[in-house]
Amino acid sequence: MIKSNHPYIFTSESVSEGHPDKVCDQISDAIIDAFLTVNPEARGAIEVLATTNQLVIAGETRGADAVTKGHMDDIAREKVKEIGYNQEGFHWRNLDIHNYVHAQSADIAMGVDSSDNKDEGAGDQGIMFGFACNETEDFMPAPIRFANVILQNLSKARRAGQEPKLGPDAKSQVSLVYENGKPVRCSSIVVSTQHTPDIKQSEIREIVRKYVLQAIPQGWMCEEDQFYVNPTGQFIIGGPDGDAGLTGRKIIVDTYGGAAPHGGGAFSGKDPTKVDRSAAYAARYLAKNVVAAGLADRCTLQLSYAIGVSHPISFYANIQGGPGIDERELERILPQLMNLSPRGIRQHLQLNRPIYAATASYGHFGRKPREDGSFSWEKLDLVEALRSHFRVKAAS
């Protein structure tokens, strides 16, 4: 999203943990966590397909033989149960699971593994982006931030038993008016949420309104005729029974809501040797520290890799606002503050841990670092070094 001086509207969407694609993402990442629990150096790439009372698990792994197919199937059922699916067309107990996970390709392993004269290489070629801006306190674009929080609020209330007539499947969409490059109010809000048959749509509208108002700044609510709740009329059949799900199909929801470029690679289901995941985390980490240090209002970073090569083959920085630092110097200093080889990223952010199931719903970015090590890429521990290098003082 390019910062513009004329008024404009920008929109982002989010989906809940019960959305069919997110069900698959969560199962994929829960299995990756199981691999890393038994062996921090385990490799895995797991894809899941979900439809009416059916799950297909496929992919490859290495170094986690203790995690059997039966174990993976149990993980999948437990995750579906945790999300809250016990409806007739998608019930954790009644799922028919087909598991086709097999050993990792020796050709891929050869390119990734280190040897006497070669450091560990990237698990694939590709481009990865990181982004941060100062629109919100977590350095995320405001539209995706609010869209995520609306659904998190609904989910917490449902899980706590406060809204028992709501189901796990939900979507949100927030459109914000920008003036002078800053968000100032909502122009429209869309929320669709699964529900039981015995509740009126007018009741659902008022339930949803409460959690929307908790998510957005006071006075930002859109006009009543631009507040859409279950616009199709009802939403009883949800989850994979209503629409098939697939791992890696919500990559914009996972990142910046379309406000920044995306390299195209999904995160969920991939161990951290896959730079689709780890390098995107590294780029977010660096971009967030740049903005938090006051060096820019917005920062976009791009990395690219070649399979089997241990260092990025390109690094690009674009900044907007701030004191006007030299982007070329930023491109020079950031790789000095963080080793951007696949091994260097994993060690710096301590990614060889079972920390990924938590990332698979409500976005991989804009979250608070946790004691278990998840969301380590959200830390702001480079701020002082960046301020010192560029001679920028902290805002008073």
Structure explained in plain terms:
The chain contains 10 helices and 13 strands. The strands form 4 sheets. Strands 1-8-9-10 form a 4-stranded mixed beta sheet, covered by helices on one side. The radius of gyration is 22 Å and the shape is flat. The two termini are 28 Å apart. The model has no long low-confidence stretch (mean pLDDT 94). Helix 5 (201-215) links the parallel strand 9 (182-195) and strand 10. Helix 1 (20-38) crosses helix 2 and helix 7 (275-292) crosses helix 9. By secondary structure, it is an alpha+beta fold.
Beta-strand percentage range: 15-25%
Shape: flat
* Structural class determined from secondary elements: alpha+beta
- Major β-sheet strand ordering: 1-8-9-10
Relative helix content: 25-40%
Describe the structure using short key phrases.
396 residues; flat; four-stranded mixed β-sheet; 10 helices; alpha+beta; 31% helix; 24% strand
Topology:
Blueprint: E1 8-15, H1 20-38, E2 43-51, E3 54-62, H2 69-83, E4 86-87, E5 90-91, E6 96-103, H3 106-112, E7 126-133, H4 142-159, E8 166-179, E9 182-195, H5 201-215, E10 227-229, E11 245-246, H6 251-254, H7 275-292, E12 298-305, E13 314-320, H8 327-337, H9 342-349, H10 383-390
Parallel strand pairs: 3-6, 9-10
Antiparallel strand pairs: 1-8, 2-3, 2-11, 4-5, 7-12, 8-9, 12-13
Helix pairs in contact: 1-2, 4-5, 7-9
Précis, in short:
The protein is an alpha+beta fold and 396 residues long. It has helices at residues 20-38, 69-83, 106-112, 142-159, 201-215, 251-254, 275-292, 327-337, 342-349, 383-390; strands at residues 8-15, 43-51, 54-62, 86-87, 90-91, 96-103, 126-133, 166-179, 182-195, 227-229, 245-246, 298-305, 314-320.
